[in-house]
Design brief:
With about 425 residues, the protein is an alpha/beta fold. The protein contains 13 helices and 16 strands. The protein folds into two domains: about 160 residues, Copper amine oxidase-like, N-terminal domain (Copper Amine Oxidase, Chain A, domain 1, 2-Layer Sandwich), CATH 3.30.457; about 230 residues, Aminopeptidase (3-Layer(aba) Sandwich), CATH 3.40.630.40. The structure holds zinc ion. Zinc ion (ZN) binds next to loops.
């Protein structure tokens, strides 16, 4: 069960977006012919024959030639082919009654476009297009899948769909609805100003133009963190924006992570975690900003091993690896967004040291992309001066904020399998 899930699991968001091709090879020619038909909008003006529609029959295989409309009789060839190609009663679902096109559209809750001159039509919902043609025993779904059906026939008031065809259309629309990619939301954002209280973090002491300058990491992180927090609250009033401390206090690492983990999430919601720090080095020339994400090679135990038994113990590392791989993807994208936000704001004064993997704390699950921002080196005299300036901290906060906003937009436009 788990190995199957692993094999099918997308390795990245991009691969999750791709849908597997579903064209049956025997139906490929017909599907192509349908795809070459005029788009739905061309059907709207039914008094005009679209020149492409007139050309279309020559591109169709003989059996697929549609009836030319209610007024014309079916040709012997297409009529014979349609009846021989029609599904047998054994493999056809049956419904209660044959339906006109409008009644079929009503049952499908779909928009109907139909051109009586060409006999082509489309039932359409956001998640699926089902194209049909009079006398043709196939329905083409989204131009890539063909469904064998009893052919719609001309009626006094437009096409009439056999009851079995109506049922098959209903099933096709129902499964498209069920397969519709969920909409993802960043429900909560946790801002974590690093250190605080009894833990000052790193400290830089410098003599600048004869004056003593002391910069302390916990003060920098709180100042930047509060600015990012306030900006996010303004930007996203309907989301949970949290901050792990608002004063000179010392929440433990466990308490900080517990705050993020306490956020209740539905299946398609995520919480993102941004920890803010300042750097230090024995090398006083070291300077620049960087963004860390969790090391993909760092294997954590996300599932409590002591409580698992037997085979469950064996699959635990697999599950952990799967979860890790996917939320690392999101963390890297969040890190890149914040890094480029900082580049825009302070890149001319502080070198961009890039994004890097690090195994710096434990988060709960795949739905928590998490990064750590190193805003600069308190041990570098030039950067210590910058980090003591209110306007510079404001720009750092703007850069982090812009990166988060970009990530939220990216995450919420994402389609495909959920990141867990
Ligand atoms: Zn730190």
């Amino acid at each position: 069960m788990y190995s199957t899930a692993l094999a099918k699991r997308p390795t990245s968001v991009m691969s999750a977006i791709r849908r597997p091709p579903r064209v049956s090879s025997s139906l490929f020619v017909l599907a192509l012919a349908f795809a070459a038909f005029p788009p739905v909008s061309a059907f709207a003006a039914s008094n005009q024959i679209d020149p492409r529609a007139q050309a279309a029959p020559s591109a169709l295989p003989e059996p697929a030639l549609p009836d030319r409309g209610p007024a014309s009789a079916s040709s012997a060839a297409s009529g014979a082919e349609a009846s021989s190609a029609a599904p047998s009663a054994a493999d056809t679902l049956t419904g209660d009654e044959d339906c006109g096109a409008l009644e079929t559209a009503r049952r499908l809750k779909a928009k109907l476009s139909y051109d009586p001159l060409t006999g082509y039509g489309v039932f359409e919902r956001p998640e699926l297009r089902a194209s049909f043609a009079l006398g043709v025993p196939w329905i083409v779904l989204d131009e890539d899948t063909s469904l064998k059906v009893a052919a719609p026939r001309p009626g006094s008031d437009g096409p009439v769909f056999p009851a079995s065809t109506v049922v098959m259309l209903q099933k096709a629309f129902a499964s498209a609805e069920a397969a519709k990619p969920p909409h993802y939301t960043v429900a909560a954002i946790v801002i974590d100003p690093g250190h605080g209280g009894k833990d000052p973090g790193t400290t830089g002491e410098h003599i600048i133009h004869g004056k003593r300058l002391v910069v302390v990491e916990k003060n920098i992180t709180l100042d930047v963190g509060l600015k990012v927090y306030a900006a996010l609250k303004r930007r996203f009033p309907d989301r949970r924006i949290l901050i792990t401390r608002t004063g000179d206090t010392y929440p433990t690492l466990e308490q900080r992570v517990a705050m993020a983990n306490s956020v209740e999430l539905t299946d398609n919601e995520a919480v993102i975690y941004v920890s803010i720090h300042a750097n230090a080095s024995f090398n006083k020339t070291a300077r620049g900003f960087e963004v860390w994400y969790l090391d993909p090679n760092y294997r954590r135990t996300l599932i409590s091993s002591p409580s698992t038994r037997g085979s469950a113990r064996e699959i635990t590392p697999i599950l952990n690896a799967m979860l890790e791989e996917e939320f690392t993807t999101e963390s890297i994208i969040l890190a890149k967004n914040i890094s480029s936000g900082l580049q825009t704001q302070i890149g001319s004064e502080s070198p961009n040291r890039g994004i890097r993997p690090e195994e710096w704390f434990v988060v709960r699950n795949a739905r928590m992309p998490a990064v750590l921002v190193e805003t600069g080196f308190v041990t570098n005299p030039d950067e210590a001066v910058l980090l003591s300036r209110e306007d510079y901290l404001r720009r750092i906060a703007d850069g982090i904020y812009n990166g988060i906003v970009d990530f939220v937009a990216y995450f919420e436009s994402m389609k495909g399998a959920p990141p867990r």
